[in-house]
Amino acid sequence: MARIGCNVLNCSHNDGGVCYANRISVTGKKAHTSNHTCCSSFLDQSTYSNLTSNTYTNGSCDYIGCNVKTCTYNANNICSLDNITITSNADAANLYSETYCSSFKCK
After folding, report:
1. Domain map of the chain by residue range?
2. Model pLDDT for residues 31-61, shown as the tens digit of each residue
3. Range 27-30 contact pairs with CB under 8 angstroms and sequence separation of 24 or more
């Protein structure tokens, strides 16, 4: 099962630093650095409350979609890593574009 670490403290899916969304999708089609990627599944907790129990399975997110064609770990639009970390440079991200996949590695 995939484990997504989440350092975006105000994400609705974050529960103690672990993502509990049903699935996530990392985007950034022509990314060359991790800062050019983002987690399009980010939802601001102030708007969407706490969604940490919003999974189909019992536990954390188990599907990592990857639309970053330049990432080494993209295997037919699925991340081949078992563990990734989503983070943000902002203290509190307002938009998904303020998040990024720190596990990204450019081909």
Report:
1. 3-101
2. 999 999 999 999 998 887 765 555 555 666 7
3. 27/67, 27/68, 28/67, 28/68, 28/70, 28/100, 28/101, 28/104, 29/67, 29/68, 29/69, 29/70, 30/69, 30/70
Which residues of the chain have a pLDDT value below 70? 1-2, 50-60
Terminal-to-terminal C-alpha distance of the chain: 25
Reduced to 3 states (helix: H, G, I; strand: E, B; else coil), residue 98 is helix
- Beta bridge partner(s), residue 15: 18
Is the CB of residue 91 less than 8 Å from the CB of residue 49?
A: no
